[in-house]
Design brief:
Blueprint lengths: L7 E5 L3 E6 L3 E7 L1 E5 L5 E4 L1 H6 L7 E5 L13
Length: about 80
Amino acid sequence: MPLFDKDIALDMGTTRVMLYLRGKGVALREPTLVAVDKFSGKLLKVGEEAQKMLGRTPAAPLCVPLRLSPFGKRSAFS
C-alpha cells in the first residue's frame, strides 16, 4: 500500500481546523485552541478539550487560539 494513497484537504482556519477525506467527507473538525500551562509552557489540551476549559480553569492554564500560542507563529506570553 502506498504511503500517500488517499486524497485529503486540510483547512487551518482562524476558529476551526478541518480535515476532509475524499469519499468520507469531513473527518476532523476541531477548534483552533490550545491550553498551555503559563508557568512551564507545557501543552495541556488541544481543540474541544481546550475549549471546555475556557472560563473554568485556575490562573495557571491559559487557553489561547493556536495562532497566538507558543506552538503557533506569535507567542501569547510576550
